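Encode chain A's predicted structure.
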Amino acid sequence: MKLGPHLHRIGNDIVAAYLVDTTDGVTVIDAGLAGQWRELTAELAAMGRTLADIRGVVLTHGDTDHLGFAERLRRDHGVPVFVHEADAARARGEERPKAAWGTVKVGPVLRFLGYAMSRGGLRTTYLTEVETVRDGDVLDLPGSPRIIGMPGHSPGSVAVHVPVADAIFAGDALTTRHVLTGAHGPQPAPFTDDPAAALTSLARLEQTPATWLLPGHGAPWSGGIAEAVRLVRAA
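Encoded structure for chain A:
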C-alpha cells in the first residue's frame, strides 16, 4: 500500500511493516512476521524496486512480531539490522518479554493468532547480528531515520522519525487497533513491560512534526500527533 511519495506499508491493521523509498534506496521499518516476505517482495516490485535496493532494516523494538523477515534479509542479502542497544538481547532471542496479556476478547485474540500463524508467526528466526543504536542517532540510511527513545513497551523501544516520508513510525509505543480487544483508535499497546514509562515516553512525540503516525498494529493515523497522544493518555 502506498501512503505517500516515499512511504509504503505492507501487512494490515493486525501486523504492519513499512518501507521508505528514496533515490538512495529503501529503508525497512520493522519486519513484521516471517511470512510477510511475499508481501515485501510484491510491494518492492510494485515500487520498481528489488531486494538489492534495501539498505537497512530499523526495528522499533525486539519483539517477534516485528523481527519477522529481518534475519533473512541480513543473512541472505547482507542487509544490516538496527535496534536499540537495550533491546539487542531481545532481538537475538536471549531475553523474552515478561508482560501480562491484560484484558482480552476471544474474537480479536483468535483473529490475531490466526493471522500470525498464517504468516509464520510461530517460526520467527531471531537475529544473529545487530547494529545497535541510541536515542538521537540519525542513521546513514535512505530517509536519514532519526531514533527517538521510547522506553516502556520494552526497555529499548523507539520511534523512528523520517522527515522525507513525513512520518513517525511508533512501533508499539502505542496502537490504533488493540489486537487483544479489537478496540480502535489511539490507545496504549498490549504486552507492555512498563505501562507508566510508556505513557511518559509519549511526550517525546508531541513536538515532532509529521503527518503520519504509524503503529506496528492498527490503521495509519493522520489526525495529528498531539491528538493521538491525548487519546492514548485518555484511554
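The two ends are 29 Å apart (CA to CA).
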